[in-house]
Structure formats: C-alpha cells, structure tokens
Write a structure and sequence with these properties.
rod-shaped; 4 helices; alpha+beta; two-stranded antiparallel sheet; single chain; 211 residues
Length: 211
C-alpha cells in the first residue's frame, strides 16, 4: 500500500497548476471572442461597402443585431457565447455580401437589357421616320405633277392655221399696129409678158377654251 503522504505534494502541485491555468485559459477565450467580434465587424463593413444597405437591408440588419449580441455576451463575461455569436454574425454578413452581389448583377443585367431595348426601339423609330419622310416626299411630288397636268389641261389651246393662196393676174398685151403702105406691109407686134402670179398668205389663229 502506498503512503498517502506521497500523493499530497503531487495533489498540491496539480491544484496550483490548475489555479494558474484557469486565468490563462480565460484570458485566451476573451481574446478569441474579441477576434471573432472584430472579424464579424469587418465582414459587415464590407457588406455596407458593397451596397447591402440598399440591396439587402433586412439581412444586413440581422447580421448587425447578431454582432451586437456577441458584444453583449463578451461584456457580461460569457466568452464562449460571445465567440459563437460572433461567428454567426460573420456567417450572416458573408451571406449578405453574396446576396448583394447577386442583386447588383441582376440589376445591371436588367439595365443592360433595357438599354439594348431602348436602342433597338430608337433605331426602329428612325427607320420609320425615314420611311414616312420618303412617303411624304413622294406624295408631294405626285401632287405637284398632278397639279401641273390639271393646269395644262385647263389652259386654252391655241392652234395656228396658215393658208397660202396664189392668184394669177394676166399681163397687159399691147395691140398690134400696122401702117399701110403701098408696096410693103409692115406689121409690128408687141411681145406679151408672162403672166404674173401673186402669192397671198393667210394666217388663222384658233383658240380653244377648255371648260
């Protein structure tokens, strides 16, 4: 049988070591809690920088509330609870960041689609305006041509008829004269000139009024 006096010093040493170790362990848990809380704060700040306040306000508020609870645990000396709650706040903050990015990507995609649709609509409107302008120009040209044709049809029609007449007038012919002689008979005759032709031109202008 072992001597009880042998175990007494050993138990005293163990008790002393345990007494010394407890404050060290407690101090280590407090540091871990503070580190966990600091990590959660950094994640929430990153979520705010990403725009979580606008994209996911409710999830951001939950993460901040969880962080506040972790700080309360640490202040009350509940170090284990503080550590666990701070880790939960970090997890929620990471979810907030992911959801914020997803919503921002979705918003950007919707905006891009809307911009593309607006560009297509503008292009179609320009094409339609060009077609309308061409149609209007064609209609104006057609109306002008029709008006010209109507004016030409309504204008008086003038016809010029030229008639040429040729009149013949006989030339004067002198009478024959003869001088009687005893021995010789001389007969003189005048030479008749060729008939003279006179040309007359008559111009007739006929104007026809179109009703």
């Amino acid at each position: 049988m072992r001597n009880p006096m042998f175990f007494a010093p050993a138990l005293a040493v163990s008790a002393f070591a345990l007494a010394l170790g407890s404050p060290v362990m407690a101090a280590g848990k407090a540091d871990r809690a503070r580190a966990a809380i600091g990590e959660a704060k950094a994640k929430i700040e990153a979520a705010d920088a990403a725009g979580a306040a606008d994209a996911t306000p409710r999830a951001r508020a939950d993460a901040k509330a969880t962080l506040a609870t972790a700080e309360e645990h640490l202040a009350a000396g509940r170090k284990e609870e503080a550590i666990a709650t701070a880790h939960e706040a970090t997890r929620r903050a990471e979810i907030v960041i992911a959801e914020t990015h997803d919503r921002q990507d979705t918003t950007a995609a919707v905006a891009a689609d809307a911009q593309a649709s607006a560009a297509i609509a503008q292009q179609q409107a320009e094409v339609a305006n060009a077609r309308a302008a061409n149609a209007e120009q064609t209609a104006a040209q057609t109306a002008a041509e029709n008006a010209r044709l109507r004016a030409a049809a309504a204008a008086p029609q003038t016809t010029v008829v030229t008639t040429e007449k040729t009149a013949s007038r006989p030339a004067y012919v002198a009478a024959s004269t003869a001088k009687p002689t005893v021995k010789k008979k001389v007969v003189r005759r005048s030479t008749a000139a060729a008939p003279t032709r006179t040309a007359e031109t008559t111009t007739t202008t006929v104007t026809t009024q179109t009703n």
